[in-house]
Amino acid sequence: MKLQKSLLILFSIVCISNAWAQKEKRFKIHTVAFYNLENLFDTINDPLKFDEASPMMEMKANRSEVYKKKIKNMARVIANIGADKANNSPAVIGVCEIENRDVLEDLVNDPLLLGKDYGIIHYDGPDKRSIDVALLYQKALFKPIDSSSHELLIYDDVTRKRVYTRDQLLVSGKLDGDLIHILVNHWPSRSGGEARSRSKRVGAARLNKRLIDSLQSIDPYAKIFTMGDLNDDPTNESVKKVLKAEKDRNRVPFKGLYNPYEKMFTDKGWGTTAYRDALSLFDQIIMTKPLLDDDYSSFRFWKAGIYNPSFMFNKRGRWKGYPFRSFADGGFTGGFSDHFPVYVYLIKEVNER
User: Fold this and answer.
1) CA geometry: angle at 147 spanning 141 and 152, to 5°?
2) pLDDT digit string (tens) for the chain, length 353 residues
3) CB neighbours of residue 297 within 10 Å
4) How far apart are CA 16 and CA 79, in angstroms?
5) 77 lies in which domain range?
6) In DSSP terms, which residues pair with 245 in a beta bridge?
7) Does 12 map to a domain?
8) Alpha carbons 181 and 124: distance in angstroms, whole number
9) How far out from the chain centre does Cα 198 lie?
10) Are strands 342-350 and 26-40 parallel, antiparallel or unpaired?
11) Is residue 152 part of a domain?
């Protein structure tokens, strides 16, 4: 009886000590995010680009007012992504469906984002509609070391003519002192149907995989994020067979990739965009194995999410529950985007002395 009592007391002391040690741990949190800004175009016709086909340029009146509202809507969303846990907007955020650097300058200078002092990494790409990708980063938190734009050479399966689409952006830099690499993507659309266009996205995935492999050949333990609007779900060939992204973080091999969005899609039925009465999860953030380690002396993956508060939903009608998009039926709806943003939290233990 005395032995049992002694063991119980010892167990209680150990539990209290462990709880106290756990309580004493402090973590720094940063948000890494991606957002399709749905046709963030300016109101000026560029004679060198096919921007007149954009919803903004197709409007016959009130372009300036619509543009200002569109910028403010995008800034409102970005300012709030991850803020509930990180108490800050994203440290870095990849964006797509932007026309040029000018619209990004207007975006980061909106009053809701101005105090964050976002820097911009953008290259003019070859997309025939003048749609580009870019990376925004808080200058106080992320220090770029290198950036490059990588051309995707793909051809139409029928005409064999080249399809001019978005480049893939690669940025390397230090997030609060930790070296990370970020690939920002906007893979070819499903225009003409999923089956006919599939090879284009497979080609995009192959380019993406080559870029990841090249980084891992230099450093097998590289912390790499590949993010974007992939125009494919987590279960499609481009993601599962080419990138070989795993659903289960415990099954990710060395130099492998983990996709936290596959479980959201297959197990929970969540999505980030909708088309013809069906939800798709085209927007994803995929990462390499070193971000999954349990050593929190440097930044590691904590959890992923889809940012979809009620103000970004349609409230009624046929599209109730779907993203409240900016443009429809040739006009501005007052909404945000036809995609919800995605994000991941990174955490690092803070040693207090």
Assistant:
1) 135
2) 444 444 343 334 344 344 444 456 899 999 999 999 999 999 887 777 767 678 888 887 888 999 999 999 999 999 999 999 999 999 999 999 999 999 999 999 999 999 999 999 999 999 888 899 999 999 999 999 999 999 999 988 788 889 899 999 999 999 999 999 999 999 999 988 999 999 999 999 999 999 999 999 999 999 999 999 999 999 999 999 999 999 999 999 999 999 999 999 999 999 999 977 789 999 999 999 999 999 999 999 999 999 999 999 988 777 788 999 999 887 899 999 999 999 999 999 997 65
3) 10
4) 40
5) 27-348
6) 257
7) no
8) 20
9) 21
10) antiparallel
11) yes
Cα–Cα nearest to 343, from 33, 74, 30: 33
Total tally of structural domains belonging to the chain? 1
Lookup result for tokens 């800050």: 88
**Nearest 5°: phi and psi at 138?**
-75, 120
The Cα–Cα gap between 131 and 165 comes to 8
Residue with tokens 């950036």: 147
CATH code for the domain of 125: 3.60.10.10
Nearest to 209 by CA among 181, 242, 232, 235: 242
Phi, psi of 21 (to 5 degrees): -65, -40
Contact (Cβ atoms closer than 8 angstroms) between residue 310 and residue 340: no
Query: What backbone phi and psi angles, to 5 degrees, belong to 337?
Result: -155, 160
∠ CA 259-260-265, rounded to 5°? 100
Q: How far is CA 1 from CA 4, 8, 9, 15, in A?
A: 5, 11, 12, 21
Closest CA to 99 of 38, 153, 147, 58: 38
Dihedral class, residue 82 (left if φ above 0, else alpha if ψ from -120 to 50, else beta): left
